Amino acid sequence: MRDAETLGGSLSGSPALKSAASGQPLDAESLKAEVETLRLRLTTQQATKSSLAKSNDELIANVEAMRQEDIESDARATKSRRKTKSKTEVKPDPRRGESSSSRPEPVGRATERRDQERKLRKKLRKIRKETKLARSAS
Q: Which of 12, 16, 40, 127 makes an SS bond possible with 34, Cβ 3.0 to 4.6 Å?
C-alpha cells in the first residue's frame, strides 16, 4: 500500500491517507471518496493538459503563418526597392553632415507583424511552461 508521501504532498491531508499512514484500517466509504476525488482531479488535469496542448499548437501555427507572411512581405519589399532604387535621391543631411535617403524608413505592416510575432512567441513560451508544469504535476 502507498503512503501519503508517494501519492504527493497535496493529498497528504486527506483522512484516508492519514489513517493509512498511521496503520489504521481503512473503511470502504472513505476510500471511495478519495478515489472519486483523485479521479476528478485527474480529469481536470487531463482537460487542462489537452487545452494547453491545443493552444500551443494554435500559437505555433500562427507564428509560422506570420513568419511566412513576413518572408513574403520582405521579398515583395526587396523586389519593389530594386525597381525604385534608381529613383531614390540621396541628399546630405544639413544637421548631421551625413547623407540620408529622401525615403523615410519603412515602418508599418512588417514591423507590426514582427511585434505581434514577438508577443505570440512570449505567449507560446508561457503556455509551454504551463504545459510542462501540468505534465510534471500529473
A: 16
